[in-house]
Structures are given as C-alpha cells and as structure tokens.
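Sequence in, structure out. Go.
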Amino acid sequence: MTSSLTTANTPLIPITILIILILPGLFYLAPHILPPPKSPPVTFPEELQDLTLFRRATTPDPRKSRLGSTNSKPKIAFLFLTNSDLHFAPLWEIFFNGSSSRSLFNVYVHADPTVVPKVNIPGGVFTKDRFIAAKKTFRGTATLIAAARRLLAAALLDDPLNEFFTLISQQCIPLHSFGYFYNALFEADKHQVAELRFLKYKSFIEIVSKDPYILDRYNARGENAMLPEVTFEKFRMGSQFWTMTRRHALVVVADRKLWKKFRMHCLRPQSCYPEEHYFPTLLSMEDPDGCTSYTLTRVNWTDSVNGHPRTYYPNEVSPGLIHELRRSNFTNSYMFARKFSPDCLEPLMKMAYQVIFRD
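Output:
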C-alpha cells in the first residue's frame, strides 16, 4: 500500500520543483510583459470642481483693484505642495518673519487630505486658513499638475496684489532671506508707472528643448498621442518647481487645450512626469520671451535614484553646502534647494541666522 502511494505521488515532486523555479522568473518578467497599471486619474467630479474654481480665478472682478492705491506694493504668493508633514515649517517661519513687513507675501498650502500636516507654531504663517481645498496627489501623474493649478487659482482669487507665484515642495529649503528674494524679483524702475511695471517681469521656469530623453517623454502616452495640440518640436521639459508671474498664472489656470493631453494615461510610466512637461511646454508655446528658461530652485540630478533627485542628509549640511547651492550660471543665484531629508531640520536651524538668512 505504501509503495503504491509513493509511486503515485512521485510525478508531483518534479512539478513542484519546476513551479518553485519558474515563479521568481514570472515575478521578474511580469512588469516587463504585462501592461502597466493605470495611474489614478483626475476624476470627473474633481474636474468639475476645478473648472468652477478656474473660471472664477480667470474672470475679472471690477470690484477688486490690482493696486488699490499708488503706494500698494506687489506681493509674492508661496505655494506649498505637500503630501506629508511640513517638516521644514520652523525654518520657513524664520524666512517669513525675517521680513520687516509681513504684508509683502501670502502663503497657500495644498496638503494631501489623508495626511494633515501637524504645524503648531504660535503666530506662524501656516494657519488653517492658509490650507486650500485639496485632493490626493500621486507621483508621475497629472494630479500634481492639477494641485499646482488649484494653488495658483486660490492665490489669484485671494489677493489681487499677488504678482509672483512660487511653487515650493515639502523637501525644499530657502537659501536666502525673504528680503533678498523679494528685491531680486522686483528690480523694476521705481519711477515707472506702477501698472506698467508689472509688464516687464518674467517667469523663472526651466524650459529645455534638447535632451537625450525628450523623445521618450513625448511618446510616453503613445506615439502621436499628443497631436495635434502638441507637436514634438513644441514639447518641452523642465523643473517641477518655478516662480511664475501673474499673467502666466492666468494662462495656466485658463488652459483647457493642453491639459486634456497631459492628463492622459501614460503607457510608459518610467518616462512620464507630466508636472515637468506641462508648465514649460505651455508657457513656451504661449510666451517664450516672457520666461527666463531657468528656475530659481536648485536640484541635484547627478546622483538621482529612480527618477528622484539627490537627497541631502544631516551629515552633509554645512555653511559650505549652502554657499555651493546658491551658485548659479544664470543671472540670478538660486533662492531655494531640494531635496533635504526631514532630519536635516536641526542642523539647518542651527545656522539659519548666521548663514542661510545672512545674505
């Protein structure tokens, strides 16, 4: 009886071994053979909510004056885009409070609704009313474009004196004082008429037309998927983070044509970074002469990992690093830098007054 059972079960042993040997190979090959999972889309209800917001933001309101009075000064709107805690909030508080006048800036935060940042700094700028109505975001998807557009729309509606709009990441730090940054942006002739002064400002956004990966990025949604709205010759790459003028903010929020292309599902996620393509492509098509083609946010891509830029850690934080990160080959020095690990806060705070904000 025993011999019979043993003989009957013998063929199962090679089959079991074969399955054990094949399974790891299947797990390895599956991502390369099977179609990639679809990125979480911007849902239809979200589209409707955004469209209502964007229409309000781009509709002129005769009751609101751009300048209010001849002595009104333009402001900078800081747009914080985060999906976790605002780890560097204490450092940003020093940046903002270092200004002699808190009437020269506004702060807006788009936070992942499932992760509420714990910011409790008495008298600080990150108050509850600074958090706008937000939606969840996902890396490498059009949800990041939508979040930035919501921030722009909220800032446009909130204050007609917001003239520049600076997008900031949760892992971004300032490299100069607020006063230094403000003066670098507003270098217009003080004798000019205020209304005309706004026309000369340019957006600080990286715009790249030649790159070894640009064709792969263009075809990430499929060959010819971007046509006819965006030809390959007009497609651009650039940094996700920028400082944009009010007139360009209005262009971005009013756009419908390019948005319907960049919101499409990507067939090759490894080549798809919509937030790095949409803004430079749109502004390059609409007003190339109104852009500097470089960003004020320093990012180190020399040691990038899986599409992420180099991350700095506490043992690297030093006065020398701050001075190095400020250096730029362009007209303006870098004003911000990313990305820093959350535990860099302590060494950064220790040298905030003597190094970072001592311009």
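Check: Residues 218 and 232 are 7 Å apart (CA to CA). The chain has one domain: 44-356.
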